[in-house]
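User: Run a structure prediction on this.
Assistant: Running it now.
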Amino acid sequence: MGRPRLYLATALAFLVEWEVLTHVSLLGVHPRLLPALVYLVGVSAGADRGAECGLFAGALCYLTGGTPWQMALFTLLGGISGAVFHTMEGFWGKWLLCLPALAGWVGLLLLGHCLGGVSLAAGLRVAGAELLLAVVCFPGAALLLWQPRPRRRGRVRRLRGR
């Protein structure tokens, strides 16, 4: 995946998250496409591209009122998913392995909320809902990165019957 396509997919996911998903609230939490997208880029393109995508996604969030903590978490998620979970192929394998990666991301978010003064019970409720919605948004992020298989070029030789 080239850099222009990476930046375009990340910006598109950010716009969908910012313009559409902020109006949807399930269990008191807004669904997010960016964590699943950053995870998928890390798994598909490697740790360096995953961290690059995470840094870009975090910078977009920071420019719209997010915290530097979020920017660091996105970069960490992309880099670690590319370094640790890079061997999985296929949609279902990547989806199953996104659970521990996104759980770690949500756990670090929970730590940030608790350091900010939120009670542990309220933080756990929000963290559980955040993890559930991040896993549900995984197919949407996969659609943003989907590439059709290239067609075979050239003639297909036919075997002559005897």
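The chain has a mean pLDDT of 83.
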